[in-house]
Amino acid sequence: RPGLYIVATPIGNLGDITLRAAETLARCDAVACEDTRVTGKLMKHLGLSKPLWRYDDHASEADRARILAAMQEKAVALASDAGTPLVSDPGYRLVRDARTAGLAITALPGACAAIAGLTLSGLPNDRFLFAGFLPNKDKARREALNDAAQMSATAIFYETAPRLVKSLETIAEMLPDREVSVARELTKLHEECRTGRAEDLAAHYSACPAKGEIVLMIGPGAAAPVGDQDIDALLADALRSAKPS
Ligand code: SAM
């Protein structure tokens, strides 16, 4: 059936492709993908050969218009280099435009590093905030950490190996009491997940520099943030208990 098929692919272990994803890649007319070499390898692993159309962050309006026009008659799969398309990966505008054009769209869920990291971490998972990549620059990184710290939820960030220690040091300084987790190389041979205080994790990764791909998570604060109404109630309580009997 013509339309857009958003296909999640593995984040390391090729065994994590779903049956439905493999079936869709086998049946579709073309695959729009970030890097044709990366998706080409996956297709080869599955014994498939399909036209691969480059669709990455640099795609122009014209590229998108071409893919949208093709989707009127063809089944087009959208895949990224790893994991779930649109999760810190291209596809948002394509999906929006396909929706506006009234095209058939379906999502084929599968691997996602953020969710795999969260489930492994042992951090509270009833409420979580996925906040994408931690910014590179110190000021923006502190702002992102501060924003995340305001929520009573576990915050999930994508991080790169060279920046990990600096980020952990900043977290240790800003949020010294929080539980932090580093999940690395998920689903791969050297998968590792360490949960503890940011200061201890910073010391560990200074001594043994982390390699590979990383999900960095910060647990929620011990108490929920106090809102204005709570402050009023707390003040009233304090005044009541301060009255002489
Ligand atoms: N769309 C992907 C997903 O669903 O997770 C994420 C793509 S984003 C461009 C790539 C980042 O995701 C990496 O820099 C890393 O932070 C994280 N990541 C991807 N694969 C990972 C893995 N196997 N282990 C840990 N983190 C991973």
TrEMBL record:
Q: Which GO terms describe its molecular function?
A: methyltransferase activity
Does this entry carry the keyword S-adenosyl-L-methionine? yes
Q: A GO term (biological process) for this protein?
A: methylation
Q: Main localisation, per the record?
A: cytoplasm
Which residues belong to any copy of the Tetrapyrrole methylase domain?
Answer: 4-201
Q: Name one Pfam family in it.
A: TP_methylase
Provide the E.C. number(s) assigned to this enzyme.
Answer: 2.1.1.198
User: So what family is this one in?
Assistant: Belongs to the methyltransferase superfamily. RsmI family.
Indicate what this protein is called per its UniProt record: Ribosomal RNA small subunit methyltransferase I
Species = Pelagerythrobacter marensis
